[in-house]
Amino acid sequence: MVPKRWLVGRLRKLYEKAKSHPNNLSFRELCSLAEKVGFIRRKQRSGTSHRVYTHPELTTEEPLTFQSNRGKAKAYQVKQLLDIIDDHDLLREE
């Protein structure tokens, strides 16, 4: 089993990368960050390249929609996720 402290450290590192370089985050890293802070990927409709995420504790928030741009995350989508993480303290260590 992987130590929880190690997982929290990796999450914090990914968060810091997104915060300091939102234009240089891969689409995979964006999706991973969303999932690690509790977002759940909704079932994708066929024929769409968008990924839709919701958070079970944030019922007042709109779903987040991510779309890859040649393997990179779109900066405004990274910023949307970071704003929600910061506003709702989703990085809190338990």
What does the model show?
Helix 1 (4-20) packs across helix 2. The longest helix has 17 residues, at 4-20. The chain has a single domain (25-94), classed as Hypothetical protein (Metal Transport, Frataxin, Chain A, 2-Layer Sandwich). The chain is built from three helices and three strands. The two termini are 18 Å apart. The chain has 94 residues and is of the alpha+beta class. The radius of gyration is 13 Å and the shape is globular. Strands 1-2-3 form a three-stranded antiparallel beta sheet. Helices cover 43% and strands 12% of the residues.
Attribute tags:
Metal Transport, Frataxin, Chain A; alpha+beta; three-stranded antiparallel β-sheet; 3 helices; 12% strand; 94 residues
> Shape, please?
globular
Number of helices: 3
> What is the CATH class designation?
Alpha Beta
- Mean pLDDT across all amino acids: 88
> What is the count of β-strands?
3
Radius of gyration: 13 Å
Low-confidence segments: none
Residues in helix, %: 40-55%
Superfamily (CATH H level) name? Hypothetical protein
